[in-house]
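[Automated response] Your request has been received and processed.

Submitted sequence:
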Amino acid sequence: MKLTTTQSVLTELLETAKNGISTRPVDPILGSLLIEASDEGRLTVIGTDLNVSIKTTAITNILQAGVVALNAKLLTDTVNNLVSGELDIEVSERTCVISHSTGKCRIVGGNPEDFPSIPETENPTEISIPSKKLQAALEACLYCSSTDETKLILTGVHFHLQGENWSCASTDGHRLALVSSKLEGNYSPISFTVPRRSLTELGKILSTTAENSNCTVKVGNNTIQFILPNAELTSRLLEGEFPHINHLIPKSFANEFIVERKGMEIILKRISHFAEKKHKIVKILWEVNDQQATLMTGNTDIGDAVDSLLIKTQTSIGENIGIGLNSGYLQEALKHISTDEIIFRFNKPLQPVIISPLGGLLDQLTLIMPVEVQDFEKPEGLTKDKTDTSKPENENETGAENTTEVNKLSELEKVSNETTNVTDTPPSDTPTANKSKSRKRKQELKPEPKLETTAV
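Generated structure:
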């Protein structure tokens, strides 16, 4: 094999393809990149861990066709540290010599015949999705997928297509993300679940594609291919039934509040480290008459914090209402929304909270299960501190309903167990109580609720 290329072109090929390689390959050949030079002037680099394969291509000056398997880390480190400019590459008997403007490097490779072949997708269903829409959908869904390998089906993103509609969803059993849009064409109903890691690597490739490009998706029984102009990603599909989640999303809402996304992000960042470490609860008191939301966190060991911002209410209820949410889940949801304003929608304090952008490229929502909190009284000594509004404090504000309506929580509690037959640690029957000597305040927290779904 003999060819001439540039350092920048080769670097881009290697950096993309090496993402298909495992950090701890079970076989030395799986720690290598397969490099092929064709007579048509196409240079191809492939990396795989047997579950996901990435192939990148570029047009370059091929003087002699051939193939070689080279250690991925050694090769990428070598090329990354070469000076920019033209490179001459020559391979003879598994030894690759890279000549550059000031010297040469010699790398001994493995047997390319031992490199595993990329599986072919048999009798595939072919789908075309705009690259930027697919990228936006992945960014809006991936963060809600589970990292628990014992619940394998939840470690992926579930796609569903029917007619001109397509959607993708993910859940870790405590929250879920759902994105939907329309496609050009009319497709027969098809559903499949793609592993989180495969889609993470696909997202990196999509971020470098042109704005108006399309991604061709070929779905088979066990594998899926994502084909882009200069790269292909092939992945196995996850087996099993993804839980049915559509029935968890309410059809109508009694409470709708619009807030400025960045303002809420700043407040959460400011007060979240005061939240107690186990449940990380932020209490939100929606003060309807004052048109503001007050966010509160507290830990008996270190102190507490309160902050507020203006809201727009779209509710007929004139009473204040409070909800308790996991601050980490809330911050992640806001991080993956790109619009300036977001809308919170819910019915009762212990029923699902839906967070959606106002506008945007896709129809997007995040569902978070609230945690039962029985006290929304502002911490003593902090009630007059308001950062984003000059409105007077409402001394007679109504706290959240001290409800014990947990039947809705039980409806949402079986997602992990029913899907994977894995039993989580049962929650304690006795709520924890945080007591502070410096203020008369009691707070009871239920264990973090889980989503309950039925298999599709």
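Summary generated for your ticket: The radius of gyration is 27 Å. Confidence is low (pLDDT under 50) at residues 385-413, 420-445.
If you did not submit this request, please reply to this message.
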